[in-house]
Amino acid sequence: MADPSTYRPAPGTIPTDPGVYKFRDADGRVVYVGKAKNLRARLSNYFQDITQLHPRTRQMVLTAASVEWTVVASEVEALQLEYTWIKRFDPRFNVMYRDDKTYPVLAVSTGERIPRAFFYRGPRRKGVRYFGPYSHAWAVRETIDSLTRVFPMRTCATGVYNRHASLGRPCLLGYIDKCAAPCIGRVDQSEHRKIVDGFVSFMAGNTDKVMRRLTTEMTEASENLEFERAASVRDDLEALKKITEQQAVVLGDGTDADLVAFHTDELEAAVQIFHVRDGRIRGQRGWVVEKAGEQASTEPVVEGQLDPALPELIQQFLVQFYSDAVERERADVRAEEKHIRRRGVDQQSHAQDRATDVVPRAVYVQVQPAAIDEVSNILSELRGGPVDVKVPQRGDKRLLLDTVTRNAQDALKQHKLKRVGDLTARSAALQEIQEALGMEDSPLRIECTDISHIQGTDVVASLVVFEDGLPKKADYRRYRIKEAAGDGHSNDVGSIAEVTRRRFKRYQEDKTANPIEDDTVFADEKVEEHSTDNKRFAYPPQLFIVDGGAPQVAAAQQVFDELGIVDVTLIGLAKRLEEVWVPGENEPVILPRNSEALYLLQHIRDEAHRFAITYHRQQRSKNMRRSELDDVPGLGPARRRDLVKHFGSVKKLKAASVEEISQVKGFGPKLAESVYKHLHRSES
């Protein structure tokens, strides 16, 4: 790997103009392309102390061996040139929003001499129009089956088509009038092309014209007493209505728009896009990509807050996605021109209509993209008309964008669970953890603790357990923290020490106790510990993880030393850079960003965080529900519980006399009278 200082440009040689820059490796290959409003300011960020860089950015500058740049006149030109170079060089460190290969689509091979409609999954190809994607494969096949009643175009594969052409008789679909049978010459090429154009036009959203035509045909057939013909057209009309009704109206004003939402963590970003045409959701797409370059941040993504990198992510996505989409449509038009002679002057307007279908009038996003004016100009140029990039604040559009955001959140969660849930991936992750930490055995049991509080109040902790890389929820524990004092960093350190002490003190005591019994509370320290079953921690984990960096690890190690714990490996996982801290080491262990080990550790840490947050919210809700007994002098939580338990409710307690209250264990006449007066103070 190269040292960035060896190829850093001399001070003052980088211009301050807008431009695009390329990092190349030792073999001259472009590894990263970026754009900047001020080249000098942007490039200087890459040549600071590499320990302060995001891991992926650090890997990029160490992989590169040179940097070069091109000055342009404006930021619009910089955006366009950046897209061109990314497409040309395919740099390994750039975010690439390639088509998702998991969604099924309806494809029409418009570039063929005799086009066909078919179900398809996979990368986009020239000469093929795609509609969707659909959520289920059956939805594609059902759509094709319904539409071929009205537009009897070819749906068979090339081999089937050629076989029936040689036999001189159509297939079953030709006999039941769901195919015009161009294979035997029942319709010629131009007539079949008209059927295909109608099919494509209907799928593109031009449904009203077809509906009106069929309604007119049905009425005329009925008036002419052609009842069989009228019934057939009626069935065709019902089939088309079924297709259009499958796409519910989500925006009543007939909006043409795309809604784009991101959900990110420190390493990756999930993006979802909903295509809304005429107020209906026509399609949905999704990607999960690694954050890179200027989108990569050294700051953790705080739950409930938007990622600071979102403006850059949205900017890059909009330019790349719509430029790719328009380029594909133009390639399809060029392919059609090859095979269709009757186009002439009309072809140009048709190509522009296709671009208008791809780029809508409005794009709704979570936050304004960086350089929003330049992005709007590029999209308007691609569409051939104005495009508004907006952030909806309220109403139906805001609610729909929230739905898109939830889809992005779920996509990122499922992406992580898929990797953690795979047996091969889990085995690889455990092996990588063992090698990275120098452990003698694979960590088949891993425990992780996390702290949750609000400015040092209502402090709680969680302890989650994973065995063989999977959560073992029966062994989850949660704690109310008693000893931690202060706030912020010092509070977390003290809380980590307390949880570690309580967990491993429990382990030491359980080693000599009957593992079936469970007293839950220690005699010498009233430990608030809740578990989902009655089993003890009769054996320790191979790996114990604390959420935090060097200070938290040092606090936990001190507890290990006090208790004589030597058979457990201890680490801390810091959120800032996903660093793994080992006790006594000045430098963290950096796991590769795409390693299965890091994914597993992240998943365990996130599960501990979720469990802690859930318990913290429960405790906070309980504390907010104040009782009339809370302010009674000399009455603590234990005696309050005894009173309510004895009388059954506060209402029955208020009806009791001083003598009846004094009969409760631990209550003398003075305290009973104090309780009575407090409950009846409004009556005096």
From TrEMBL:
Annotated transmembrane regions: none
GO cellular component, one term: excinuclease repair complex
Coiled coil spans: none
Lineage top rank: taxon: Bacteria
One Gene Ontology term of the molecular function aspect: DNA binding
Main location: cytoplasm
Name listed for the protein in its UniProt record: UvrABC system protein C
